[in-house]
């Protein structure tokens, strides 16, 4: 006869609560994805208000692409959730810890070398994850992306890239983990403060490991996988630098990344801290700026919009520079506060033996396992709530950025750029409201165009 909940031990309650919450989140995500798939299946014609923004051929291509991605996401998500559940039910975590101990024993090292054993455990865990995820990654790249014209990789390039990513991940993950575990071991009662400082910045001039990793990734790690070259001198570079100066943006370099050897998707981003910002443009985004294809560039995009270019001519003229209030790194501050809270709660919970018993650790309480249990499982409800709040905040920031462009008199350019990105990446402009609210950190295309006032004038 099954035990009632009240008869379960505290460790069993913890274990089953983790499983129930994990499947609850999965079912919620599956429900949202189902709502969005209904949109993909039922919306087969371009909505009237999008008639001058997207042609029917592109609309159908994006619909089928997103439908395939959604179906793939359902099956890969189901597999991932099932795999995670089986790992917990079958004691996969304590088993892998014992395997890492056996590996250590072969080198004559015992349980007192916990940090070394933790690194072996971590390497085996990431190897297992890479191995089980490989078939899904192959299918996504060579079936879905290939089918819709995005994949540019050969199988050899893909596998070589995967091995390189795994090696680079280990070179970063293992030393950082070792340092963190060492700090926790020697930090005494206030180890959580030192651990937090390790991942954040104590002073603006003394960045912690997280800030350092962000910087070295862009400058030293990303170039291991893609070729970064300075944007050639010309009108585009001059316009970018001129705009940066007009809003006091501390731009130091503009790069073009060779993303076309992997995919024909296009994008752009910037990175950096304080007075050292850099902009990166995908080469796929700039194909139209090539001297061999100059007629199809920004002007071509404007011509595709027809009369709209003339209607917004006045709007594209320079306007008074909007006031740029210096509000500091609010997002960074929120992130640091969240990190401190998490490390503090970890310090409170790490001594609770029942947490380790719940996941099959009866004879030992390894610090790395404690980190995994608390941050990945115990904090799951908090992480879900935080993720949703960050999505809402990100969407708010995107609208603010669009409003800033509008105040600068750049609404016309942003309007065309958003349409181009949506077309190039086969983004589907129609979204279920609940799916969009939960998942979209960037507002859907139509919402952004409405905020710019574009579709109403079309």
From TrEMBL:
What is catalysed by this protein?
A: Hydrolyzes the peptide bond -P2-(S-farnesyl or geranylgeranyl)C-P1'-P2'-P3'-COOH where P1' and P2' are amino acids with aliphatic side chains and P3' is any C-terminal residue
Cofactor binding description? Binds 1 zinc ion per subunit.
Subcellular location(s) per record? Endoplasmic reticulum membrane
Q: How does it sit in the membrane?
A: Multi-pass membrane protein
UniProt keyword terms in alphabetical order = Endoplasmic reticulum, Hydrolase, Membrane, Metal-binding, Metalloprotease, Protease, Transmembrane, Transmembrane helix, Zinc
Main subcellular localization, coarse class? endoplasmic reticulum
Ranges that cross the membrane: 14-32, 86-107, 119-139, 328-349, 369-393
| Documented EC number(s) | 3.4.24.84
This entry's Gene Ontology molecular function terms read: metal ion binding; metalloendopeptidase activity
Class of this enzyme:
hydrolase
What InterPro entries does its record include? CAXX_Prtase_1, Peptidase_M48, Peptidase_M48_N
Query: Keyword Metal-binding: yes or no?
Result: yes
According to its UniProt entry, the protein's GO biological process terms are: CAAX-box protein processing
Domain named Peptidase M48: residues: 230-289, 332-453
Q: Binding positions for Zn(2+)?
A: 398
According to the UniProt entry, which residue ranges have a biased composition of type Basic and acidic residues?
299-318
Q: Where is this region: Disordered?
A: 296-328
Q: What range(s) does the CAAX prenyl protease 1 N-terminal domain occupy?
A: 36-227
What cofactors are annotated for this protein?
Zn(2+)
Q: Which GO terms describe its cellular component?
A: endoplasmic reticulum membrane
Q: Which PANTHER family match?
A: CAAX PRENYL PROTEASE 1
The family assignment reads: Belongs to the peptidase M48A family.
Q: What does this protein do?
A: Proteolytically removes the C-terminal three residues of farnesylated proteins.
Kindly provide the name given to this protein in its UniProt entry.
CAAX prenyl protease
């Amino acid at each position: 006869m099954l035990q009632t909940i009240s008869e379960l031990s505290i460790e069993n309650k913890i274990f089953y609560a983790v499983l129930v919450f994990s499947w609850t989140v999965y079912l919620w995500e599956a429900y949202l994805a189902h709502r969005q798939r209904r949109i993909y299946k039922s919306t087969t014609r371009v909505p009237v208000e999008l008639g001058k923004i997207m042609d029917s051929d592109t609309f159908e291509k994006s619909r089928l692409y997103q439908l395939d991605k959604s179906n793939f996401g359902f099956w890969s998500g189901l597999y991932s959730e099932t795999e995670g559940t089986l790992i917990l039910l079958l004691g996969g975590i304590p088993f892998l810890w014992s395997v890492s101990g056996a590996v250590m024993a072969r080198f004559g090292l015992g349980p007192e070398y916990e940090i070394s054993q933790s690194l072996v455990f971590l390497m085996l865990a990431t190897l297992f994850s890479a191995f089980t995820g490989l078939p899904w990654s192959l299918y996504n790249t060579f079936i879905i992306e290939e089918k819709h014209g995005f994949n540019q990789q050969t199988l050899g390039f893909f596998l070589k890239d995967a091995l390189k990513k795994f090696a680079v991940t280990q070179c970063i993950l293992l030393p950082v983990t070792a340092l963190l575990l060492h700090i926790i071991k020697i930090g005494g009662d206030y180890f959580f403060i030192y651990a937090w400082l390790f991942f954040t910045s104590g002073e603006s001039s003394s960045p912690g490991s997280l800030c350092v990793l962000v910087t070295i990734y862009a400058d030293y790690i990303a170039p291991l996988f893609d070729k970064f070259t300075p944007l050639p001198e010309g009108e585009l570079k001059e316009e970018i630098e001129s705009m940066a100066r007009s809003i006091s943006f501390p731009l130091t370099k503009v790069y073009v990344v060779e993303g076309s050897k992997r995919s024909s998707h296009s994008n752009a981003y910037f990175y950096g801290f304080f007075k050292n910002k850099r902009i990166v443009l995908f080469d796929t985004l700039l194909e139209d700026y090539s001297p061999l294809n100059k007629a199809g560039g920004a002007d071509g995009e404007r011509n595709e919009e027809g009369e709209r270019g003339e209607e917004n001519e006045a709007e594209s003229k320079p306007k008074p520079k909007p006031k740029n209030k210096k509000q500091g790194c609010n997002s960074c501050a929120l992130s640091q506060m969240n990190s401190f809270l998490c490390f503090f709660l970890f310090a409170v919970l790490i001594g609770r033996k029942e947490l380790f018993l719940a996941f099959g650790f009866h004879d030992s309480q390894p610090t790395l396992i404690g980190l995994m249990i608390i941050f990945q499982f115990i904090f799951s409800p908090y992480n879900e709530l935080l993720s949703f709040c960050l999505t809402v905040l990100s969407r708010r920031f995107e609208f603010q950025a669009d409003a800033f462009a509008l105040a600068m008199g750049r609404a016309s350019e942003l309007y065309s750029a958003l349409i181009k990105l949506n077309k190039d990446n086969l983004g589907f402009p129609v979204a279920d409201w609940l799916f969009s609210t939960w998942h979209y950190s960037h507002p859907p295309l139509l919402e952004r165009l409405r905020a710019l006032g574009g579709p109403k004038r079309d």
